[in-house]
Amino acid sequence: xxxxxxxxxxxxxxxxxxxxxxxxxxxxxxxxxxxxxxxxxxxxxxxxxxxxxxxxxxxxxxxxxxxxxxxxxxxxxxxxxxxxxxxxxxxxxxxxxxxxxxxxxxxxxxxxxxxxxxxxxxxxxxxx
Length: 128
What we know:
This protein is 67% helix and 0% strand. It is built from 6 helices and no strands. It has helices spanning 4-12, 19-30, 32-35, 38-47, 52-81, 94-114. α2 packs antiparallel against α4 (38-47), α2 (19-30) runs parallel beside α5 (52-81) and α5 (52-81) packs antiparallel against α6 (94-114).
């Protein structure tokens, strides 16, 4: 795996990502608060080809949002299938799931803006 210095120097020639790269990395992580998985996907499509650093952050954020969406879908379907047996209680887990996803995304955005390559602690990495 490449280090942060190798990734930053790949595009800019310097060991640190530029302020613009840091900003777009942070946007990739924070945009799902308003746009769900569409935010990181847009960042990846618009800026990912210009910076490996931004692309890594956008892919990580996109994978996390897809993981959260899959977990929410499982909770909704399981709640519906088990409705007669109190499965609707599973739907009450959607709010904490959303809250954890939002908090972790904002934290990742802060780390990206500081210049760190952030990896979510629980993430199914579908987009490579």
